[in-house]
Design brief:
The structure holds three protein chains of three kinds. By secondary structure, chain B is α/β, with parallel strands linked by helices. Chain B has two domains: about 250 residues, Rossmann fold (3-Layer(aba) Sandwich), CATH 3.40.50.300; about 80 residues, no CATH class. The chains are: A alpha+beta, B alpha/beta, C mainly alpha. Chains in contact: A-C, B-C. Bound molecules: adenosine-5'-diphosphate and magnesium ion.
Chain lengths: ~375, ~350, ~325
């Protein structure tokens, strides 16, 4: 190239760039605005989002919100019924909530310990009370709990057959189950990007082989496949090891679907990209990818990730439920539900089933949220 | 208004003050805005206009085929002479009523632009003709099959017995349109609405289909409403022509009058834009400017935004009144209204 | 058609070949070795001392001392050539003996579940599409959401709980006690049918939710099809029209996803079977995973997957019969 060729371009470049940058900012901004605006119309999806955020916060600070640690046994309070806080009793009403006292005695016939409510005793509920010591977020040592009693014990969801507080355990399980879902989805996503990217980059035979492989994996029924992988965890593994192995297993089976969708979306976006590139003369490819392709792609990816959550949650619950997933002392929704595996158990203590409600609500929330996001980010409306 | 008037004897169909809107997410769209037209016994009415001008909507409404979100205005009137001699007000018929079903197909038949999608892909051609015949004629299944094969033969399909057993995707485009015509005519209608029947076909096939329609009309004596966006095509088949734009009629007259002495600037533009023979199947794009969105239709003459002879302060205020140029030739344009005044 | 069948059969064989390799890998995954587990089962409680030499003997007996590829070929050729799935150590008998009858029970469960699914999903999905936006349509959408969110095994527990506390009877099991070990008879078959309904409904729960939405969506697409307007313009009565044109096509995606349904059902089967106490392959699979009885587990995984692949084969054939366009593409 000769200098005469270059000079006009050089003088033009900054102008073009400015224009294109502005245009890009405009496009990506309006795109997110559009998505946000459409999402705001989705009431149900917002409810889902709020529920999930609440669950995440409660799970993150489970030890604070729960009055006991997950392993504390209140030995004389085996299979206590759920206790609802109340404001009134025969003596009248107070602003401070309380629960009636509980007495436990041995049933002379069955010789089982049974609990009875003693309305004459009133146990006030206090907030920010001192209780068992724990490490907040695994770091800060404290003994302040959100609520609790000064005397006796409180079990909003009752206790299990070992006398452990189900409410506290459900909060801990919420953390485990959600986090395993998050790790599972993230690892699956990374695998999908790497393997999908490699396949896409080398193309041809490798791409074909990977696609065939994933097709065959998809033929085998999923849960039995998971179980086969989970059955191979050595018995002597610690619960932490099992936890990470579980996320890996979930991700291993989950990535092909994601990879296929990412691949498809990338291909279709690349097609659109030529048009954009032509319009935004002067902007380099990295700029286009960073400023335009990625935002469009990100919204799509986020939707996809949200949609794959329920699958991870349900799989974890199913595996732990039958004893092939997480193991005690780790608590997850599935592990808690192990106690409710037989009808006899539920018949005796229906509150053991409470964790199931959390599973259903979480999955429902992810589903409506995913639907709402997908509608909001509808690629046709965005690009068209 | 005119809709209290009883239909004249020569007319098979008389449409007065037809106004149709659609309820959509973006608001109410008025697709057809107070138009009149009529079809004489045994004659062909051509309706011409660019796509989106409301040709399909106004003719489908005759058979009450519009989707649920459509509203036919209360002041509209569609009067139809039944074979029995009875006159029915089509807008008053109950949806799904027996009478409406008798008229659909049996007295008014419809053929579409896309012969592929107007057949169901999972039934044979024969199955769909026989269904139509059995619906409207009092014949046995075997007789219906004979009628169907006979009809396929009459519309110029070779090997009709074999075609009878074939699926729509096994026929070529021209063959499918012939089959579509066979379905329509096997029900013996007195009015055939042909909604751009040749648009998706190539030139030679197009000419064959037009010729076939002319022949069949002579033979069977039915009336036809022929819709197209191509004035060149319509000149070959129509007795009278209505020029439509954005839901309004802009000019009407005998075919000769419209083709030889077009008075409205829109008609003139359409005539200039007639595709040459080698580009006959293409979409009409030659008129400059975009068709306004039906959501923001212009006030006044709908064409003023693209009209070369636009008169600001006149055309964009109100719709011009009809100007009678001859007994049969009417134009809606201020250029002519002025001459009269 | 013959060519079509031939192609599909070859495709099925290739898929099953790769599946068998994958299943074999899963069988090999658990730590420790088969001989030890086998010996432990056989001699535990007998007080017999097992020496390293005994173990080597067992290994040689089962060919465990051979390299993996060789063992794979021995395993797979035993299955393909002799229908022999190997030895189940937890039961101290052949895998074939353990699995035997359960294959038929599993098939009975699969088909009754599919029947329930389609009997509900197809008409209801069509109805929802026709009444789009109505209260019923909305209620069905809510049901579909629940179908995704409430796992079948939890539904099973809920139903069991309700049946015991409210009706004081159990809905579990596949046979009444008096028939459990009785030889096959008409009465026993009737008893089985009666017991199949509850598991079928429970297993159909999520499959129905999915298929209902599929049918509804296809039906909505088809309702907008020009061929429907064309038929209406011919004066065909509305109900006849809906059934003959859009509803007919709304079945196609259901037929083409039959194997996905089978996959979903088998995926949920082990846990539901555990809860309901159904003596079929899924429950046995779960047990053998817990016992690490990998020959049994591998055999079941292979059989279940084969059933899915075969369903896929069947759905290809059905689709070719239902939709004339398919044949043209396949040539
Ligand atoms: N189902 C519908 N919903 C909303 N608007 C419609 C619908 N069908 C037609 N329209 C409107 O009616 C106008 C005329 O359409 P149409 O009669 O199909 O035009 P033409 O047949 O002349 O090409 C279109 O511009 C469109 O805006
Ligand atoms: Mg049209």
């Amino acid at each position: 190239m000769t200098p005469t060729d270059l000079s006009p371009k050089e003088t033009q470049a900054p102008i073009n760039q400015m224009e294109s940058e502005e245009a890009q900012r405009y496009y990506s901004a309006t795109q997110f605005q559009l998505i946000w605006w459409r999402f705001r119309k989705h009431r149900l999806a917002q409810v889902g989002a709020i529920i999930l955020i609440t669950m995440a916060v409660i799970g993150l600070f489970a030890e604070f919100f729960g009055p006991y640690t997950g392993t504390t046994r209140v030995s004389d309070a085996v299979l206590v019924r759920p206790q609802a806080p109340q404001f009134c009793n025969d003596d009248g009403c107070t602003l401070r909530p309380f629960i009636p006292g509980v007495i436990s005695e041995r049933n002379p016939e069955t010789l089982r310990m049974e609990t009875k409510i003693d309305p004459s005793v009133r146990r006030d509920i206090y907030f920010f009370v001192e209780g068992e010591e724990y490490k907040l977020l695994g770091k800060f040592k404290t003994n302040i709990h959100f609520f609790g009693l000064k005397e006796g014990s409180i079990h909003l969801f009752g206790t299990d057959s070992l006398g452990r507080d189900i409410f506290s355990r459900v909060l801990l399980a919420t953390r485990t189950s959600l986090s395993i879902g998050i790790f599972g989805v993230v690892i699956a996503f990374v695998l999908a990007l790497v393997i999908g990217g490699v396949a896409g980059y080398f193309g041809g035979g490798l791409d074909y082989a990977i696609q065939r492989l994933t097709e065959i994996v998809r033929v085998i029924p999923v849960i039995p496949l998971y179980m086969g992988l989970a059955a191979a965890f050595p018995k002597e593994w610690s619960s932490t090891q099992v936890y990470f192995a579980m996320t890996l297993v979930l991700a291993l089976v989950g990535w092909p679907t994601l990879a296929r969708r990412i691949r498809g979306k990338l291909l279709s976006l690349r097609g659109e990209d030529y048009v954009i590139a032509a319009n935004l003369a002067g902007a380099g490819p990295s700029r286009i990818i960073g400023r335009h392709l990625l935002p469009a792609f990100m919204s799509y990816i986020i939707v996809d990730l949200v949609i794959s959550f329920p699958f991870m949650l349900l799989s974890e619950t199913a595996l732990s439920f039958v004893g092939l997933g997480l193991r005690p002392p780790t608590v997850s929704w599935g592990v808690l539900l192990q106690d409710a595996q037989t009808v006899r158990a539920i018949e005796q203590a229906p509150w053991l089933f409470i964790p199931a409600i959390f599973v259903v609500v979480a999955v429902l929330s992810f589903t409506v949220l995913g639907d709402g996001l997908r509608d909001a980010a509808d690629p046709y409306q965005v690009s068209g | 208004m005119a809709n209290t008037k009883e239909i004249t004897k020569d007319n098979l169909l008389e449409v007065r003050n037809l106004k149709i809107s659609f309820k959509t997410d973006e608001g109410i769209i008025t697709a057809v805005d107070g138009i009149d037209f009529s079809v004489k016994h045994g004659q062909t009415l051509g309706i011409v206009g660019e796509s989106g001008s409301g040709k399909s909507v106004s003719t489908w409404s005759i058979m009450r085929l519009l989707p649920k979100n459509s509203i036919i205005d209360k002041g509209s009137s569609i009067q139809f002479h039944r074979k029995s001699g009875k006159v029915v007000e089509m807008t008053k018929l109950k949806a799904n009523s027996r009478e409406l079903r008798k008229i659909r197909g049996g007295e008014v038949a419809l053929i579409f632009q896309e012969p592929m999608s107007s057949f169901s892909p999972v039934y044979t051609i024969g199955n769909q003709i026989v269904e139509a015949v059995l619906q409207h004629r009092d014949v046995s299944k075997e007789e219906a099959e004979e009628i169907a094969v006979d009809m396929l033969d009459r519309v110029g399909i070779s090997n009709p017995r074999q075609r009878f057993r074939q699926y729509p995707f096994e026929l070529s485009g021209g063959m499918r349109q012939r089959a579509m015509i066979a379905v329509a005519l096997s029900m013996n209608p007195s009015l055939l609405i042909a909604d751009e029947p040749t648009t998706s076909l190539d030139v030679t096939i197009q000419a064959q289909i037009l010729e076939l329609m002319n022949e069949l009309q002579e033979e069977l004596g039915m009336s036809i409403i022929f819709i197209t966006h191509n004035l060149g095509v319509i000149a070959q088949v129509a007795d009278e022509i209505e020029v439509m734009y954005l839901g309004k009629i802009l000019e009407r007259g005998k075919t000769k009058e419209i083709i030889q002495q077009p008075q409205h600037p829109y008609t003139q533009a359409l005539l200039e834009a007639i595709p040459r023979l080698d580009r006959l199947g293409e979409r009409l794009t030659a008129i400059s400017g975009d068709i306004p969105s039906p959501l923001s239709r212009p006030v006044g003459c709908p064409f003023y935004t693209r009209c070369e002879k636009v008169m600001p302060g006149i055309c964009d205020i109100e719709m011009p009144k009809p100007t009678q140029l001859s007994e049969t030739h009417t134009v809606y344009c201020f250029l002519h209204e002025e001459k009269d005044v | 058609m013959v060519k079509f069948l031939f192609q599909r059969t070859i495709g099925m064989a290739i898929t099953m070949f790769f599946v068998s390799i994958m299943v074999f890998v899963i069988m090999e995954l658990p730590p420790g070795d088969y001989a030890e587990r086998w010996a432990f089962r056989k001699f535990s409680g007998t007080g017999a001392q097992i020496t390293e030499a005994d173990l080597d003997n067992i290994r040689a007996n089962f060919g465990l001392d051979r390299p993996a590829p060789e063992r794979y070929f021995k395993w797979i050729s035993g299955i393909v050539l002799h229908g022999d799935f190997g030895e189940a150590f937890a039961f101290q008998t052949s895998v074939n003996n353990v699995i035997g009858q359960k294959i038929w029970l599993t098939l009975a469960i699969l088909f009754s579940t599919l029947i329930v699914t389609y009997l509900v999903a197809i008409p209801v999905g069509i109805y929802a599409a026709i009444r789009r936006g109505s209260a019923e349509d909305y209620a069905l959408t809510v049901f579909s959401y629940l179908g995704f969110a409430l796992p079948n095994f939890l539904l099973a527990l809920v139903l069991l709980y309700v049946s015991i506390t409210v009706f004081d009877s159990s809905v579990g099991g596949l046979f009444s006690p008096e028939y459990a070990d009785a030889p096959w008879s008409i009465a026993k078959a009737k008893d089985l049918l009666g017991h199949l309904i509850i598991p079928a409904i429970i297993l159909a729960w999520s499959a129905t939710a999915f298929q209902l939405q599929t049918v509804r969506a296809t039906m909505l697409d088809e309702l907008n099809n020009l061929s429907v307007t064309a038929a209406r313009a011919r004066g065909v009565p509305e109900w006849k029209l809906l059934l003959k044109y859009p509803a007919r096509l709304a079945i196609n995606p259901v037929v083409s996803t039959m194997s996905f349904d089978a996959n979903r059902i088998f995926s949920e089967l082990p846990i539901v079977a555990l809860v309901l106490g159904l003596p079929e392959l899924g429950e046995l699979l779960l047990k053998s995973y817990l016992d690490l009885d990998m020959f049994v587990a591998g055999a079941i995984l292979l059989i279940l997957t084969f059933m899915i692949v075969f369903m896929n084969f069947l759905s290809d054939i059905f689709l070719a019969i239902l939709d004339p366009r398919v044949k043209l593409i396949e040539g």
